[in-house]
Amino acid sequence: MRLFSLCLFAGLFHLPLKAQLSAFQYLGEDYYADELYLGLAIRHVDLEFPNALPPEKHRVNAWTGDFLLYRTNLEAGGMRYLFRNKILGEIFYGFGEDFTDIARAEGSTFSHFLIGAHDFNWNLWVRDRWALAMGFNLTDLALGSTFIVKDSLGYEHPFTPAPHGWYVGLGPALMADYLISDFFLLELQADYTFHLKNLVPLSYGEKASDIEMPHQYFLSAHLLTSWGLYTGVEASFLNDRSAYNGDAQKLEWLFGFRLML
């Protein structure tokens, strides 16, 4: 799927352009007619915490599912809305794992939780072939790392340093569209989130109420076809601003279909 995505991105810019962005047809319908779409996809997740040791205990490499909700709009000043929640697909991945003592197993997590990510963007520039929208995101974060450490007597026990638990934050957002041809549309997205509140810390985690809140940022590029299929790559990054420096990065490749609701 990665090779398919890369070849598609590399070759499609040479296709002739016949239509304007506002006239892009999706399954025979006007894509930007203020419609709500449900995207369903399979995705490959590669999550790692570069500073965590041993690294193999803090990495996830797996196939799972993904979804998004997206309300389109191409009017000047019009609002676009997009919702996604990565934890839903990652829960399905977890069903294949051993849940024995999962609360304190050595490992790390970096995902959404009950709120997910909500993007509200307003169109600033709309041109024949491209459009740019800016706004804000409301995003939550599920975070935690557990390590097996030895005490002064040589006994091993689990330790979960701060930051950990459920966070919520706000930040700027950007969306851009570029019409490649009558049949292919490139959609770009970027979010930066300043987490403001640790809603629920882990009960067994390190107590550190004065720790600096983590930040995260998200980048995505989706190639949408007029036949409903889409492919894309998404990258999420955690900026852990504590002394622990537990930064994380997640790279995802997707292939799916969008339904008009």
Over the alpha carbons, how many angstroms does the gyration radius reach?
A: 20 Å
Low-pLDDT residue spans: 95-103
N-to-C terminal Cα separation, in Å?
27 Å
Give the CATH topology: Lipocalin
Key phrases:
single chain; 261 residues; mainly beta; Lipocalin; 10-stranded antiparallel β-barrel; two-stranded antiparallel ribbon; 14 strands; elongated; signal; Nucleoside-specific outer membrane channel protein Tsx
Question: What's the arrangement of secondary structure elements?
Answer:
Blueprint: H1 2-11, E1 25-26, E2 29-30, E3 36-48, E4 59-71, E5 79-84, H2 87-94, E6 107-111, E7 117-126, E8 130-150, E9 156-159, E10 165-179, E11 184-200, E12 215-225, E13 229-239, E14 248-260
Structure description:
The model is unreliable at 95-103 (pLDDT under 50). The two termini are 27 Å apart. The chain contains 2 helices and 14 strands. The chain has helices at 2-11, 87-94; strands at 25-26, 29-30, 36-48, 59-71, 79-84, 107-111, 117-126, 130-150, 156-159, 165-179, 184-200, 215-225, 229-239, 248-260. By secondary structure, it is mostly beta strands. The strands form 2 sheets. Strands 3-4-5-7-8-10-11-12-13-14 form a 10-stranded antiparallel barrel. Strand 1 (25-26) and strand 2 (29-30) form a beta hairpin. It has a single domain, classed as Lipocalin (Beta Barrel).
